[in-house]
Design goal:
Chain lengths: 256, 370, 300
């Protein structure tokens, strides 16, 4: 626990003191007086707020679209019969782990061809392609007894009504897990935003922070302040849904 | 089935197979309007498959199904106008009882029902199944019997052409089951729609059905009224499946006079078509038709009481016959027959049946009094 | 039957087509994204391993040249070796630590929740943030660790500047980040095991170590399969940390496959090698996923 936390404490302490006192020996753990200059210059001189908004917007959009797309696809795979279901499921299952890191070159060209480079779409659309979420959602939907959608069908409900009124409400805890997982992955993503967006005003937090470091002589106080603030939203989101967020669901999703 | 009317359900040469395994052999049945038809058989006999095929939840491999004279093979379940009660009730757990019952009504598109009309129909359906007080509860807050009634209300509220019920009582305890049998029948009479009901419980089938379809191993065994099935079982399977205690089956051989002999008693078939002397056959004896009498006369079996099962209204005794075989027989419950008593057994009118070497019933048997 | 079998065939086909259409309507948004942003790139990648050309220049077909040159290229080979060495260090380490922590946490029935959250914090952080945090912590001049080293009277260690230390250090940082995730994963697996079995074993006099080795390990096999393969897939893509911390240095000692691919897109101006290496990565991941599916389905 200490090993997990000490680096954070160090960052907090660095963020709240003057960069010059950073090099004092022995280091002051508790900054006194508290120095707000780092935070102020981060918020005033850097587009940090913009990056945060971009990140929350992109992550939120991906999360909402992914929940919608993946749960709909999972419903079809779990509770419907149709031509090509088995082969489709197999193709999707094999593609689950294909990493975006391995696809950056062709993705770059596809996105450039579509004229989406440097837009939010370039950040939002490619993450939706990964089918892992389908399998997570499918494992939740499979737990619903077949007789429920069957009964709804006989009651005259359309497939869309069954999906909206029966399936979605019943898998809500699972949806929270999927949403949290997606949001986290999106919030922390780095390599693809680094490539897809050059324009600093459309950049996300991770790339923005790393651009702060690239200066010849990095301003460590400023960097710490950025890291400190970047950790806040995701930690809050995590704490909010902590109870429902069980990691094991990930392995259950891939178990047929 | 009265001629001239369209059957509520008509199945023509309906069959089902998964790959090479035949789940259901070609089968034709018609259900009359208002009829209460029960599909009876052990698990895996194909009865639930038939129900699902009528509902549209399972494809047919072959054959045709008509509901109200309309071919429904290629009609989606939602458009078949049938309602189904599932074994696990399939209530929507996140909705109140009221919303569960209203769900089918809310799906009606043309014409769309007004809020007040939905409300009124929900109330009247709830009243039929005596649920009016529980409308705002959720399924998890209800007992098994109450859930069962919600499922029924949800099925009747839309007034479908046909009701399908898949072992609806099997999750209830014995007392509740008997009670629900009565209320189900009352409801059926009130609604007056054809019902196909699946069960593995022969008592349920005998007490409730207008007609029973007996199935085994994906094959139709017999269709008939409870009386038909009890008095003239088509084969040894039906004979043993219907009636309690079970019919006793004994190997025998057709004699030269086309009769059979059992424990010194000659039994004569009431019909000799297809009988051949010297062929192996099976004699079936219903314990309910064997009556314990005091003194033997020719044509009676005789033996010693080994065990008795006193049931209050009835008493069954196990009798070891003189030549060593044991049979069950019915005794007067008012008279005690302690083990060790020597008794005689009279073979009643419809107690004995003769089956040929394939197990198919040939005739009823009557004892010959020399 | 009242309809001819030809008519039945026609009607049945129409009905099936209609059900399939409904299903594909549900799948459509997802499959569209899948086709454009995953399937197409993978096919493009396979195709481009046989071509040459840059981001701007014209492409031409070169057969197997890319494959030959990629395997002959010292940098590409270094990146593959580094990635494998790194995975071989990071994965076993994180598994052992996470398993020990999970076993310890299992014995804490209540109040373990703050510990769990604390353990999970590193996992939540963007890799890039985690990497930067460690630039501090490990800094030769003002890092905490070197403060400790200096207090002991030694010379500060330049963790990220030393050829032999850089890669293990990167592995260490990834272990720090991954511990929370894998602890939770193993904990979930342990909690899911039937309790009675362990009680019975304890009554039979089996010690804690024995109970773990002969009961928990075999029962957790599915979790382990998943863990090993998933961890391998994740670690083969290591990029963020080395990009932020070392940029592949010193002397390419932390150049990973993913970093090599990235550079081939932007720095080399020649994407043939990068594509080939990417494609190898995709094939490896596909093979691992296939193995995973096979193990899950037929072994457990």
């Amino acid at each position: 626990m200490a090993i997990a936390l000490i680096p954070f404490l160090y960052v907090i302490s660095t963020a709240l003191k003057d960069t010059n006192s950073l090099f004092s020996y022995p280091p002051d753990w508790i900054p006194s007086p508290i120095y707000w200059g780092n935070l102020r210059s981060l918020l005033q001189d850097q587009p940090f707020v913009r990056w945060t908004i971009n990140t929350l917007f992109v992550s939120g959009a991906v999360t909402i679209l992914k929940i919608w797309f993946d749960s709909a696809a999972a419903y079809a795979l779990a509770k419907m019969d149709f031509y090509g279901k088995r082969s489709l499921a197999l193709i999707l299952l094999l593609s689950v782990a294909i990493p975006i890191a391995a696809l950056i070159i062709p993705l770059f060209f596809v996105v450039r061809y579509l004229g989406l480079l440097n837009t939010y779409w370039a950040l939002i659309l490619p993450p939706l392609a990964n089918p892992l979420g389908i399998f997570m959602a499918r494992s939740f939907i499979t737990a619903i007894p077949d007789s429920l959608p069957a009964s709804a069908r006989l009651d005259g409900a359309s497939e869309f009504t069954i999906y909206r009124k029966i399936v979605l409400p019943l898998i809500r805890p699972g949806i929270v897990v999927l949403g949290m997982f997606t949001f986290m992955l999106q919030y922390t993503s780095f390599i693809w935003p680094l490539i897809a967006v050059q324009d600093s005003s459309r950049q996300v937090l991770t790339v923005g922070i790393s651009s702060l470091k690239s200066a010849f002589l990095p301003d460590w106080g400023l960097l710490s302040a950025a890291m400190l603030l970047a950790a806040v939203p995701i930690t809050l989101v995590f704490l909010a849904v902590q109870k429902t967020f069980v990691v094991n669901d990930l392995s259950g999703a891939l178990r047929e | 089935m009265p001629t001239g009317t369209t059957p509520a359900i008509e199945m023509i040469q309906v069959a089902k197979s998964f790959g090479d395994t035949e789940v259901l052999q070609p089968l034709s049945i018609a259900v009359a309007p208002g009829e209460f038809m029960i599909l009876l058989g052990p698990s895996g006999c194909g009865k639930s498959t038939i129900l699902k095929m009528i509902a549209g939840l399972e494809d047919l491999s072959d054959g045709e199904i008509y509901v109200d004279g309309k071919l429904v093979n290629y009609v989606r379940p939602k458009e078949r106008n049938v309602a189904m009660v599932f074994q696990n009730y399939a209530l929507y757990p996140h909705m109140t009882v009221r919303d569960n019952i209203a769900f089918p009504l809310r799906q009606l598109k043309r014409p769309r029902l007004s809020r007040s009309e939905i409300n009124q129909r929900v109330l009247s359906a709830a009243e039929i199944v005596t649920l009016s007080d529980l409308l705002d509860r959720r399924p998890a807050q209800l007992s098994g019997g109450q859930r069962q009634r919600v499922a029924l209300a949800r099925a009747i509220v839309r007034q479908p052409a046909v009701f399908l019920m898949d072992e609806p009582l099997s999750n209830l305890d014995a007392l509740l089951r008997a009670e629900m049998r009565t209320s189900l029948l009352e409801m059926h009479n009130r609604v007056g729609r054809a019902t196909v009901y699946v069960t593995h419980d022969q008592i349920e089938a005998m007490t409730m059905a207008d007609r029973i379809v007996v199935l085994e191993g994906g094959r139709l065994q017999q269709v008939g009224t409870p009386h038909d099935l009890y008095d003239a079982p088509a084969n040894t399977f039906v004979a043993r499946f219907i009636g309690s205690p079970q019919m006793l089956l004994l190997a025998a051989e057709v004699g030269p006079a086309l009769d059979v002999e059992f424990e010194g008693v000659r039994l004569l078939p009431d019909c000799t078509d297809g009988l051949q002397a010297g062929r192996p056959a099976t004699i079936g004896l219903r314990p309910t038709g064997l009556r314990v009498v005091d003194d033997g006369s020719p044509g009676h079996l005789s033996g010693t009481v080994r065990r008795r099962d006193y049931l209050g209204s009835d008493c069954f005794v196990e009798v070891e016959l003189d030549r060593g075989r044991s049979v069950q027989a019915r005794a007067d419950p008012a008279r005690d027959r302690p083990p060790g008593d020597t008794v005689a057994l009279a073979i009643g009118g419809e107690a004995a049946h003769l089956f040929d070497d394939r197990g198919v019933r040939v005739a009823g048997l009557c004892p010959v009094v020399p | 039957m009242r309809l001819s079998s030809g008519e039945h065939r026609r009607l049945r086909r129409r009905y099936k087509l209609r059900t399939a259409l409904t299903a594909y309507l549900f799948l459509a948004p997802n499959l569209l994204c899948f086709a454009v942003f995953l399937l197409l790139p993978v096919l493009w990648l396979a195709f481009s391993t046989f071509r040459t050309g840059g981001v701007l220049g014209p492409a031409e077909f070169v057969g197997l040249d890319n494959w030959r040159e990629t395997f002959g290229d010292p940098l590409a080979r270094t990146s593959i070796r580094n990635t494998i060495v790194y995975s071989a260090m990071a994965i076993p380490a994180v598994f052992v630590i996470a398993m020990v922590l999970a076993l310890a946490l299992r014995t804490i029935p209540r109040g373990g929740s703050p510990i769990r959250v604390a353990l999970y914090l590193p996992t939540l952080q963007p890799t890039i943030v985690a990497a930067l945090i460690f630039t501090f912590v490990l800094h030769p001049d003002f890092g905490v660790i070197n403060f400790a080293v200096r207090t002991l009277g030694r010379d500060p260690i330049n963790f990220l500047g030393d050829i032999s230390l850089a890669l293990p250090t990167v592995a260490g940082i990834e272990v720090w980040r991954g511990t929370g995730f894998w602890t939770m994963m193993f904990l979930a697996g342990l909690v899911g095991l039937p309790h009675e079995l362990f009680q019975a074993a304890e009554l039979d006099g089996a010690g804690a170590v024995r109970r773990f080795v002969s009961l928990a390990v075999p029962l957790l096999r599915p979790t382990f399969y998943f863990a090993v393969i998933f961890a391998t897939i994740v670690n083969l893509q290591l990029f963020d940390t080395v990009f932020a911390l070392t940029d592949g240095g010193p002397a390419n000692s932390t150049l990973t496959v993913a970093l090599f691919v990235y550079r081939s897109l932007f720095s080399f101006g020649e994407i043939g090698f990068g594509s080939t290496l990417s494609f190898i990565l995709v094939i490896t991941v596909l093979a691992l996923t296939g193995a995973q599916t096979y193990l899950m389905r037929y072994r457990s």
